[in-house]
Specification:
This protein is an alpha/beta fold and 345 residues long. It has helices spanning 12-25, 41-50, 69-77, 94-97, 113-125, 151-157, 162-168, 184-199, 210-218, 224-238, 267-270, 293-311, 316-323, 327-336; strands spanning 31-34, 59-63, 102-106, 127-128, 137-138, 142-147, 171-174. It starts with 11 loop residues before the first helix and ends in a 9-residue tail after the last helix.
Length: 345
């Protein structure tokens, strides 16, 4: 599980989480890592292993959501030859592979109840039994698990075992989302930007311009660090002008030419039903233009600005020149129409 991404941040919330992870690493106890997608749960799991006494033993990773329910148990605990259709030879499970080291169970909340039952026994007694075998095997494994769910709610709903949660939650590390680490956004953006510039062979890193930094700071980042990395790397490779990078496209799907959703009418609904006694009122078109003159002008201006931004690759300075506006005039118009997040400067 060697990563090319480093653990980077200087905000108090992030450093506190890392400090707790570092302290927990030395203890041979299970750790549960909680966090939204893209917050770095895998990196924290690796940190827990590398700083533990097991650092020179295997770190085995299993994404519990990546396999169908029918294969999860065989993947975790292994199987004997002939245990089920397709099992032509015996295979060790992830617990056996991680003997002496750490087993990282990602997306723990997706485990079926049957797999939770067997996992509890493995954690409680240090024993696993391959599918198709009656002979238990002793394993020495430290469990680190991760999820983006609030597992106590799952326990209340009856979809997660309370005793398993109790066993795995000796220490619970909750990673802060990027929106709670505002001071880390420019630090991370600079790191990802420098690395991308080196990857594509640029000798000088120009940094980001003020408009680009404003766009990065104002976005809520629902995809957290993973989303930020994509946005920054995309901006770096697209930038072809001298000077600081000043064009940020947050949404790569934003385009005036994107296809409209044309959901087909279900066949059952398309079957002729009895005609209504009275004719139905004609539907109002979704793109109906109100009669008010100011509203029409405002809508036209917003569409014109959006189209011009897209045609100029969301570079606000180039867009301003194309529209015959000064940079400040364009920024004022974008702010008035709440379009500042669509581009850099």
């Amino acid at each position: 599980m060697e990563r090319t991404t480093q653990v980077i941040g200087q905000s108090t919330a992030f450093l506190d989480a890392l400090e707790r992870a570092s302290r927990a690493a030395a203890l041979d106890r299970p750790v549960l890592v909680i966090g939204e997608r893209g917050t770095g749960k895998e990196l924290v799991a690796e940190r827990l292993h590398r700083l533990s006494p097991r650092w020179d033993q295997p770190l085995v990773v299993m994404n519990c959501a990546a396999l169908p329910e029918t294969l999860i148990e065989a993947e975790l605990f292994g199987h004997e030859a002939g245990a089920f259709t397709g099992a032509t030879k015996a295979r060790a499970g992830r617990f056996e592979e991680a003997h002496g080291g750490t087993l990282f169970l990602d997306e723990l909340g997706t485990l079926a109840m049957a797999a939770q039952d067997r996992l509890l026994r493995a954690v409680e007694y240090g024993e696993v039994t391959r599918i198709g075998s009656s002979r238990p095997l002793t394993v020495d494994v430290r469990i680190v698990a991760a999820t983006n769910e609030h597992l106590p709610d799952r326990v209340a709903q009856g979809t997660f075992r309370a005793d398993l949660l109790d066993r795995l939650s000796f220490e619970v590390l909750t990673l802060p989302p990027l929106r709670a680490r505002a001071g880390d956004i420019p630090v991370l953006a600079d790191f990802f930007g420098r690395r991308m510039a080196a990857e594509i062979g640029r000798e000088v890193w120009p940094g980001f311009g003020p408009a680009a930094l404003d766009a990065l700071a104002s976005h809520p980042w629902p995809g957290n660090v993973r989303e930020l990395r994509n946005v920054v790397e995309r901006a770096v490779y697209r930038w072809e002008q001298p000077g600081p990078i000043d064009a940020i496209e947050i949404d790569p799907f934003a385009s005036p030419h994107r296809p409209r959703n044309t959901a087909p009418v279900p066949q059952a609904a398309a079957a002729a039903s009895p005609e209504p006694a009275e004719p139905a009122a004609a539907p109002v078109p979704q793109d109906f233009e109100p009669a008010d003159f100011k509203t029409r002008v405002s809508r036209f201006e917003r569409e014109l600005l959006s189209r011009a931004l897209a045609e100029n690759r969301f570079n606000q300075r180039t867009t301003a020149e194309a529209l015959g506006l000064s940079y400040d005039q364009l920024r004022h118009a974008l702010r008035r129409h709440q379009l500042l997040g669509q581009g850099g400067g």
